[in-house]
Design a protein that fits this description.
mainly alpha
Length: about 90
């Protein structure tokens, strides 16, 4: 089996470029957001992370798994309607 040959100098250059680009992306803040919007986006994400509560998740899973719900069965329709009702209640 033939092995690819990468000169040591090329490997060093590639590694350096990778490190520099990673450093720059962290300096710029949050990828996909202008610098002036990063703080607002991070605050919004923190608010969303605080929403899930274990007791709510236990209840959702209890309802969804209380009976079999293979695709196309009445159980599946019940689960779909329950999820739809939850989404509607959340806006």
């Amino acid at each position: 089996m033939k092995r690819a040959f990468i000169p040591n100098g090329l490997a060093v250059v590639a590694t350096t470029l990778l490190v520099v680009s990673l450093g720059r992306s962290q300096e710029q803040g949050l990828r996909g957001f202008p610098r002036q919007q990063v703080a607002a986006q991070q605050q919004l994400e923190e608010r969303f992370r605080a929403i899930p509560r274990p007791e709510n998740l236990r209840e959702y899973m209890r309802v969804i798994t209380e009976e079999p719900h293979a695709a196309g069965t009445p159980g599946s329709r019940k689960v779909a309607e329950y999820i739809l009702a939850q989404f509607q209640s959340w806006g």
